[in-house]
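Practice problem 4.
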């Protein structure tokens, strides 16, 4: 595996490949003397050192709470190479011609595209993972590089080698958004995304005697018997049967008395919903006029009807003629009732008076209707009585993706943005999400977003200090508020997490860098398109993959129960939509992800008697060794194992 990049994502990705998947990694980075980090990081490092001193002096923390900070894995299995740019010579020296996969995660799209074209020419069988912010351009580049690989390999890709010469284009904003949304909702970023669903692994304590714990969607693992013992806090592999057991069978789970379990659950929201308020281009009639104006119009119509009935009774003319004459008198276009009866003259005067009263009402109706059409595309304000919502700070590229994910889960959101021209305001306006325009560091802005009645606060602006200040102010308003910070620097994220946990031990606190959240998705793409993600279980790792049943004798033609291999792999769900289409479904564009999001095609809880067909596509959980065996790859041994 070769990783090329110029920021923290490259280092985090190399650590993910080494620590989770046990791969040999070559890391290509710019020379240290030419690698200049953004100024905010320098401030972040100074603040990080200050926060660390505060933590060590006030709380004496040992650092076992990992809030998404720097990796503590020892350096090893990673070869670091310095190169100013990913030129052909640099890629050749990194071993791209012999590598299984290459990740290009430079901050510049043009650099990544140029290096990808060069790498595809050097090794047509290479699996490529590109970091591109321009998603539309990325789709074209992905198709172009895949066609190049197919032509160079005769259409066979990497058949026979166990690797596919695919190209995957990812954005760190897109990959970090699901984890941020899940953290705000469930307090954890240990999630796997598949078919628009967010799945999380939950550790459950041992069930009391005589009780049966809820298995969720599936039981993934049994925790160590000594998991609560500080001497075995890491779940040492030397414990044997007492250690963690991945993918146990039903009998093992039933006989495991006194052991906690790890179960799979869907991340969902069950609180009050916030109506999107989208009624098309033309608002409904009830929203055109205020309630007071509607009552005024109804009263005038009643007066007109009463006058028409009175004229009919007084003059004895036909009811339609009486109604017509009343309207003529109302609009002052009838002849004066000279020489007619007194009753007719009185009714004409009353009709004229009602006509005078009708003029201001009609003018108010026109103005209100015009105002309604003007505000139909304007930003909404937080409604009165709103509670249980998520306050989202920042509508940049990260905030826009997070907003889309939250609304896909039907979570009520109130956004706060200081820039009236921010790119995410159009998305918020289309989704009819309330927005407060203002600087979050100014007094009264968070109060306008009703942070005191919110369930969670997500601070994802581009300034670390702004995120930190907003979180500290929100905690002062409501100490038990769940907060999630997006921070640029891993060390700064760790220090902030430790400090906030020490100051508010009873509240949920998560500080995350985008590189920490995006690295698992990039690593999974480097392992192959079928990898959906990984979830750690003590010192072991469970992988989630989407696999076509055809071509895998361990699955094809067997029942779900017969295909299950304890400790290796387990079929979790059937992807009916992918099976019907016969191909890989693409992620919708961010602008269309909410409005046209299809329903999930995953079928959970398959009976053990269901026979897997060659055309089926399944989602399964597997160990590293089990997945390597299933996909026909040679498992790699971790150094020092």
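Answer key:
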């Amino acid at each position: 595996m070769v990783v090329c990049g110029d920021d923290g994502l490259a280092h985090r990705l190399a650590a993910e490949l080494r620590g989770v998947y046990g791969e040999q990694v070559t890391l290509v980075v710019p020379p240290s003397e030419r690698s200049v980090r953004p100024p905010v990081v320098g401030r972040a490092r100074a603040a990080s050192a200050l926060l660390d001193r505060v933590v060590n002096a006030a709380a004496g923390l040992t650092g076992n709470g990992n809030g998404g900070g720097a990796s503590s894995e020892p350096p090893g299995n990673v070869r670091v190479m310095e190169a100013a740019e990913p030129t052909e010579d640099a890629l050749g020296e990194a071993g791209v011609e012999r590598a299984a996969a290459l990740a290009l995660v430079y901050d510049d799209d043009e650099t990544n595209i140029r290096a990808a074209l060069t790498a595809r020419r050097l090794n047509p069988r290479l699996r490529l993972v590109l970091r591109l912010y321009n998603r539309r351009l990325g789709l074209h580049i992905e198709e172009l590089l895949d066609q190049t690989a197919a032509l160079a390999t005769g259409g066979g890709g990497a058949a026979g080698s166990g690797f596919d010469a695919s190209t995957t284009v990812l954005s760190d904003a897109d990959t970090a958004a699901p984890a941020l949304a899940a953290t705000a909702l469930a307090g954890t970023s240990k999630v796997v995304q598949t078919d628009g669903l967010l799945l999380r692994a939950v550790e459950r304590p041992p069930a009391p005697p005589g009780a049966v714990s809820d298995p969720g969607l599936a039981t993934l693992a049994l925790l160590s018997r000594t998991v609560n013992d500080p001497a075995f806090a890491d779940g040492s592999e030397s414990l044997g049967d007492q250690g963690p057991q991945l993918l146990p069978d039903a009998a093992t789970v039933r006989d495991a008395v006194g052991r906690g379990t790890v179960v799979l659950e869907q991340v969902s929201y069950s609180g009050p919903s916030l109506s999107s308020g989208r009624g098309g281009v033309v608002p409904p009639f009830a929203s055109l006029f205020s309630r007071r104006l509607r009552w005024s119009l109804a009263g005038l119509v009643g007066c007109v009807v009463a006058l028409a009935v009175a004229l009919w009774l007084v003059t004895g003319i036909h009811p339609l003629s009486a109604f017509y004459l009343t309207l003529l008198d109302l609009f002052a276009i009838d002849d004066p009732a000279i020489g007619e009866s007194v009753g007719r003259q009185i009714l004409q005067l009353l009709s004229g008076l009602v006509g005078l009263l009708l003029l201001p009402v009609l003018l108010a109706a026109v103005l209100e209707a015009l105002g309604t059409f003007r505000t139909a595309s304007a930003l909404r304000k937080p409604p009165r009585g709103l509670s249980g919502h998520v306050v989202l700070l920042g509508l940049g590229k990260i905030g826009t993706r997070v907003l889309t994910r939250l609304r896909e889960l039907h979570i009520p959101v109130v956004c706060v943005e200081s820039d009236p021209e921010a790119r995410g305001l159009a998305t918020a306006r289309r989704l009819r999400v309330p927005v407060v325009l203002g600087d979050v560091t100014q007094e009264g802005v968070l109060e306008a977003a009703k942070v005191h009645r919110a369930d969670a606060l997500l601070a994802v602006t581009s300034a670390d200090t702004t995120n930190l200040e907003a979180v500290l102010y929100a905690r002062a308003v409501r100490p038990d508020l769940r907060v999630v910070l997006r921070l640029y620097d891993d060390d700064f994220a760790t220090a902030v997490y430790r400090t906030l946990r020490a100051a508010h031990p009873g509240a949920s606190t998560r500080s995350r860098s985008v590189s920490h959240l995006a690295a698992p998705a990039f690593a999974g793409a480097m392992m192959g398109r079928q990898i959906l993600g990984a979830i750690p279980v003590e010192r072991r790792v469970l992988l989630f993959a989407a696999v076509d049943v055809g071509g895998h004798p361990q699955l094809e033609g067997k029942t779900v129960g017969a295909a299950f291999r304890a400790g290796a792999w387990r079929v979790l769900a059937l992807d009916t939509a992918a099976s019907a289409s016969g191909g890989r479904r693409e992620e919708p564009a961010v602008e269309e992800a909410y409005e046209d999001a299809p329903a999930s095609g995953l079928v959970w809880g398959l009976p053990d008697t269901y026979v897997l067909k060659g055309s089926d596509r399944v989602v399964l959980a597997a160990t590293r060794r089990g997945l390597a065996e299933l996909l026909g790859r040679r498992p790699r041994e971790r150094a020092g194992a």
